[in-house]
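Here is the promised in-class demo. Please do not try to memorize the tokens; focus on the logic of going from shape to residues.
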């Protein structure tokens, strides 16, 4: 009996299928009105788009401009490694700049007396331009220190900036009893 010398050859084909993970848009998720933030995506040759150009616009480079307060979805569409269209998305919040209303309250105060000013927006800070004439505390209580005029400001600040409003406060001198008598006798 003769032995057969035979070889069996196996062909093994290895198919490499890369593991795809969805790329993410990177960058800030918020922007102020009239400000710009830049977004990026690891994929190239894609197209940027905004779900609402009235809230946020995006240019071909991924620069997002805040237009009005609200939320818009920014998308980036590209062809992935499987030659299929893929879209990455990111929600962008557009924050308003701070606003401030007029100061209300009595703007005349006597020496050593107080008056309270207010603003319809909470969370602001009060200040006086001349603490030798009038001081103001964190609650808007103004105290007359010496006769004259002082400017009282109310400033509101958020992540998009500051806004302020002012009012003039008049500190009147105290009348002494002698001056009142003299006024009365002159009549």
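The designed amino acids, position by position:
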């Amino acid at each position: 009996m003769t032995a057969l010398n035979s070889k069996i050859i196996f062909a093994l084909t290895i198919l490499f299928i890369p593991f795809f993970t969805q790329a993410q848009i990177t960058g800030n998720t918020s922007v102020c009105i009239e400000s710009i933030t830049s977004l990026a995506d690891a994929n190239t040759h894609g197209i940027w788009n905004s779900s609402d150009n009235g809230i946020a616009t995006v240019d071909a480079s991924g620069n997002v401009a805040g237009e009005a307060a609200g939320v818009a979805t920014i998308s980036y569409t590209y062809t992935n490694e499987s030659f299929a269209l893929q879209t990455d998305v990111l929600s962008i919040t557009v924050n308003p700049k701070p606003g401030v209303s007029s100061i209300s309250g009595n703007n005349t105060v006597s020496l050593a007396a107080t008056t309270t000013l207010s603003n319809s927006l909470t969370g602001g800070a009060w200040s006086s331009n001349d603490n030798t004439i009038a001081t103001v505390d964190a609650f808007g209580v103004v105290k007359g220190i010496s006769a004259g005029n002082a400017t009282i400001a109310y400033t509101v600040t958020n992540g998009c900036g500051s806004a302020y409003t002012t009012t003039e406060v008049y500190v009147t001198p105290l009348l002494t009893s002698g001056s009142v008598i003299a006024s009365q006798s002159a009549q």
